[in-house]
Amino acid sequence: MEGNSITKQNFEHLFREYYSRLYYFAYDFTEDMEVSKDIVSEVFTSIWNNKENIENDKVVGYLFVSVRNQALNYIKRQKQAGDYADFCGRVADEEGDEGLELIDERIAEMSSLIDKMPLRTKYILEECYFHHKKYKEVADVLEISTDGVKKHIVKALSMLRDHFNVKKDKSGVPES
Amino acid sequence: MNNDDNIEENMNPAEVLSACEEMDFKRVFTRMRLPVPDVDEAWKQFSTDTDMEPSVTKRKNRRTLFMGFAAGVAASVALFFGAYRMFIAPQLPHAVQVFNAQHNKEGVLLSYNSGRSFNISSTTKNTATLLAQGVKANKDSLVYTPAKPSLREEKLTVSTPLGKDYYVVLPDGTKVWLNADTELIFPTHFTGARREVRLQGEAYFEVAKDKAHPFVVYNNLFSTTVLGTKFNMRTYSQSSASVVLVEGKVTVESKKSKTIQTIVPGQKALLTSSGQFEVQHVDTYAYVQWKEGYFYFNNVPLVEIMQELGRWYNVDIVIENPKMMHTRLHFVADRSQGLSEALQNLNTIGDVHATMNGNKVIVK
What we know:
The complex is a heterodimer of chains A (176) and B (364). Chain A has 176 residues and is mainly α. Chain A has helices at residues 8-30, 33-49, 59-77, 82-95, 103-115, 119-129, 135-142, 146-171. Helices cover 17% and strands 32% of the residues of chain B.
């Protein structure tokens, strides 16, 4: 179909619109800023070099899947990363290849819900899921029990699960 | 993933997260904490690398430093961070000056209580003298290496002027980042059962571990006793002061009422004129960004933001409409940029219009 491939003009637009999101998406896996920037650049480069063969409406999906593949490859090459590489693989399997560009919407929604949670809960979530601390480590620092830490996590989790399940029921269409 | 260590037998399904759920939690914080990449720069690099002709796209005239939550005004009942001496607005809407610049701008000073005083931010001519006394100082930092024990013990004072921060390493290896308009007094040797220093202003401490010798920071209102710890202390105001704990454990004691309070990481102890400590849970990240070189204000009243800018850029600040003082804003900016760039950033928020008039910033 005519006009269906990428032009130079809409390429820059594509780059500017998706660069940050792809960067974060890569960082979520690699946890390295420079590597993430490199991956995103490489993926855009390969798209640029291949633009005649990619349809306009497929390019966004292709961007996200390629970035993820490169990120996963990077992680596998890190020697100490066995468990973490498995974890990332599971994330990729669970999320599939469709709708990855909608992740940011979901995260923005989660963020505003988490923002309303008590500060201690937010602290615990950040320590456990962003700083990779174990429940026991966080419990020791806060001088509470491991169960106490778990309670915060379970409460946050069930609140979020309820919220997103309700959305799913309302729309009748599975959430991505 | 770390959570595998957290999984025990017979765990309730409500407690088990899918990989995707775990990743989503991480994603929330990644987008909150990581600075946004410079897309303009990335595009420039990319188009150069791929030999593309530069197109005539309009360049965004400012960098958004942080993606994430909506900026803008929220009339929420959030905690009132820090305590400042506020100028109370008179009844009629009347411009209020909320910060006064200092007119004799000095450099960072190092003084001995025996009377000698050195301006360590300007020249290198003092370097040799100071080095002989165990002080290795340049315009950004000072490392104090304990001198031979035969030298008389003295008190050293490092003071920063408005607009300059400074990094000090104490005789025991404790690291201290001093914000602008701050004074730290410490001894040449830590002798005795406790390591004692005094602070006026704001500083972030990473205290060297020494279980046998608790580290105590005194300010004009309370003392803070710590073991190996990371915390931020703020005492600009005469009537209130606070400590925010990042790591470790601290006990604070009020001078006036002798009340004692212990806090854990994620907590802030605030002492107000009542003489009692208020303990709050806070986002410690917001309190330490200044030492990383950023202004980080998340839902903070305009007056506080402007006072910080006044202190850093050493300018008078006038707010024309006092009702705006309590407008809460989200504002993140690089402290190394100039005042006019900082004001440009501030102005893009939309609710604020700040202009410079000589050494005065006027906010409408």
